[in-house]
Structures are given as structure tokens and as C-alpha cells.
Amino acid sequence: MASPEHLILFARYPEPGKTKTRLLSAFSPESVVDIYKHLLDYTLILVRDFSSQQGCDVSLYVSGGTAQEMGTLVGDDFRLVEQTGDTLGDRMLNAVTYASELGAERTVIIGTDCLELIPDDLTKAFELLQSHDLVLGPAQDGGYYLIGLQEPQPSIFDEMPWGTNTVFNETLNRARNRSLDTALLEIHNDIDYPEDLIPLRGTLPESLRAVFPQKQGTLSVIIPTWNEAEKLPATLTKVGRPHNELEVIVVDGKSTDTTCDIAEQHGCRVIRSNPGRGTQMNAGASVASGEFLLFLHADTQLPDNYELLVSESLKSNVIAGAFRLKIDHSSLDMRLTEWGANWRSRWRQLPYGDQAIFLKADTFYAMHGYRNWPIMEDYELIHRLRKLGTIRLLSQAVTTSGRRWMKIGVWKTWWRNQCCIRMYRRGHSIEKIRDAYYSQRSL
After folding, report:
1. Rounded to whole angstroms, how far apart are CA atoms 86 and 149?
2. What does the pLDDT look like over 156-211, one tens digit per residue?
3. Do residues 65 and 234 make contact, with C-beta atoms less than 8 angstroms apart?
4. Cα dihedral angle (18, 290, 249, 318), rounded to 10 degrees?
């Protein structure tokens, strides 16, 4: 007799170049397959444990590979069903419909890309479906990692803009329009892009050590860029050429100039990423092989002997460090800005991103890195670091461009920054803070 609860897992047979293609900007096809296999194994263990305790039916909906290949990969304890339909929405609707025909009253669908998914999420989803038409597990990227239904709902799946950051909100809107009683689970991060891999690096399994090697004594300098052809050459000159103990990673957010060419000519590893400084720095850190990480703005020049300064600093009892700030402009206002930044950094332990924040890679990964934000990502990270230990301000200075202060004036820039901090502390969304910053209006 069929169980009233049916758990469906969507998976595909891993093939190089066809699996998790949005990771290919940073990893080889073979490495992406290894990453996917780990995600699949994690999810299969989760599903096995849950189904043995819950007693629900389980179906594994697959695409790619032969039945024998898929069976060898996942084992013989699942009902294997081939995915059918032209779109992801068609395939999920067909799966829910089939489960209902088998007698399911509550059906939950998950994928294989959420390492934060735990049995309690599945338990709660099925419990909520006893009193709700629809259950969604929202993902950080604007999609969802879980959907649960009492019965098939074609309007929830038809002509959905799959693969965009609007899927979750669009699904909610459609549910409201259909008067579907909807419940939400906790927000989780799923793995679609390189920047999503930071938590995985914090708990790296042995099977992925070759994909994510770490070289003791090596420093990885990570530089997010967007149309930085003018400033990047001077920055890279001070960074120096990559060598055995220095890795230089430029993470480009869709530049339209020669930024990437300049970086490649310098010998840097170049990654194309989704734009946004937090996102780009996480993407760079996801592939970094250094024991130490240094995050450098593209218009900021490091001091001499910075490699030794960083490694010696992090061998002492500090959690992170940064350099004093120097601005390449001679006005009195700029000197006052430097003084304020350096006072704040030393006495309040609050350096910002233009001071070249550095820390041990293991610390960064254990903290899950930066938030994938376009603004305030350095402010938020520093506040978390400050709770963990001492942030050292080195006496040597980085030299950063004064362009952002000169654009609207030093004091207007200072006031705008203070407004953004105030908005952040008051709980405004990052999107609203970003809009306020770039509209150059004071709130």
C-alpha cells in the first residue's frame, strides 16, 4: 500500500561539461563532476536516513546516463524514474502528478545542490503539508531548494523563469493569486555558482581534497574587478608576478574593457563571475589554494614586502589583519579621511575593504566567507571577525585611489557612507542600501 507521503529527488547522471555548468567558469569539467558526486552522495544519505525513519515512499527522478549507469552510481534501493517534459517545470509537475496517482497526499521535491538541507527540513515540510497547500524552502539566490504540494498545481510550474533570481517570488505570487495556503521553511544556501562553495570548503571531505588543494605557506591575493583597465596595471605591478608561494586571482564581474586581458598577461588566474564585490571575492576564494587570503581592491597598491608582512602577522595571535590607509591625493580633506580610517582601524578594530583585509583561509571558510552582497560586505565580515579575536593594523600602508572621494566630494562621500551604516544597523535590506549609495542621496 502506498504511503500518503512521497519524497522525490531530482538528479542527473554526472557528465563532464554537462553537469553544474555554472561552476565551469572556475573549475574543470572533471572537478565539477567530483563536486556534483559529493552533493549527490550527501543528499542520498539524507534521503535514506529520512525515509527509514519516516516511512515515506521515495522516487529518484533521473536524467542522463543509462539505467545501469545510474543504478551503479546511486544503488538499487530507490525507485528510478526517468524525468519527462520539456522544461524543469514540466518535469516536476509530471513527477507530482505521478505521485498523486500512486496515492500520495503530500509530495515533496528536492534537488541535489543544498548541503544545508537536514532531515528536520523534510519532517517540517511534510508536517506543514497536512494543513497547507504549498510548502517552499527558499534559497539565498532567489530560487527554492524544496517544494511540497498536496496535489498537482500546474500554475506553479508553467512558464516559470527557471534559472533566475525571481523564481521564489514568482512562485509566491502565483500561489497568492490561486489562494493557495503557503508555508515557508528556513532560507538555505544552495550550490549553483563558485561563490556558493565557500561553506563546503569549511568542511571539506577527503574525496574533494584534490579539487580544492591547499598549499602551506602560500598567499592567495584575490582582486575583484569591473572595468579596471586603467587602475589594474599599477595594482598588479605592486602585487608582483605569481610564484610558488603567491597566487593571484582576478575575479571579473563582466567587464567590457581590457581588464581580463591585462590580468591574464600578468599571469593571474582569471575567473568570470556574477558581479558584486562580495560575490566576486567569494568566487575567488572558492578556488584559492593559499594558506592565507588577502582581498585587494583593484585601485589599491600594496606596500613593499607585503607577503612577509602578512605571513608573519598571521603567525601571531591575531584573527585577521589590514594595512593603514593612504589616499593618493594631497588635499587636507584626504589627510583627515586617512586619519579617521586609521584611528577607527586601530582603536575600534574596524578596517574596511580598501585596506586589504587578510586572514587565514581556514578562518575564512569556517566563517562561510563574505555575504554575497554588492555593498557592506566588508563591514559585515569585520564585525564577525572582531568577535573571534584581534584584528591587527599594520604600520605599513596601502595606497588607494581617491577617485570615489573626488567624484562627489570628500564630505558628501563620508556622509553617504555613514547613512549606509545607519541603514544597515536599522535593518534595511542590502538592496535598499545599495540603491541609496549609488543614487548618491542622503537618508
Report:
1. 21
2. 999 999 988 899 999 999 999 999 999 999 999 999 999 999 999 999 999 999 99
3. no
4. 130
Query: Cβ-count burial of 360 within 10 angstroms (0-12 exposed, 13-18 middle, 19+ buried)?
Result: middle
- Tell me the pLDDT tens digit for each residue of 41-84: 999 999 999 999 988 999 999 999 887 888 888 888 888 999 99
Nearest to 10 by CA among 68, 72, 118, 85: 85
Which candidate, 29, 46, 182, 171, places its Cα nearest to that of 113? 46
Q: Which of 157, 182, 160, 142 is nearest to 96 (CA)?
A: 157
The angle at the Cα of 436, spanning 432 to 438, to the nearest 5 degrees, equals 115
pTM: 0.92
Length in residues, the chain: 443
Q: What is the largest CA-CA distance in the chain?
A: 81
Give the Å distances, CA to CA, from 309 to 59, 239, 314, 358. Answer: 55, 13, 9, 11
* Radius of gyration from C-alpha coordinates of the chain: 24
Q: Give the neighbor-by-neighbor strand order of the sheet with 320-327.
A: 269-272, 246-252, 215-225, 290-295, 358-360, 320-327, 391-400, 300-301
What DSSP letter does each residue of 153-221 carry, written as one string? Answer: -HHHHTT--TTSTTHHHHHHHHHHHTT--EEE---B---SSGGGGHHHHHT--GGGTTTS--EEEEEEE
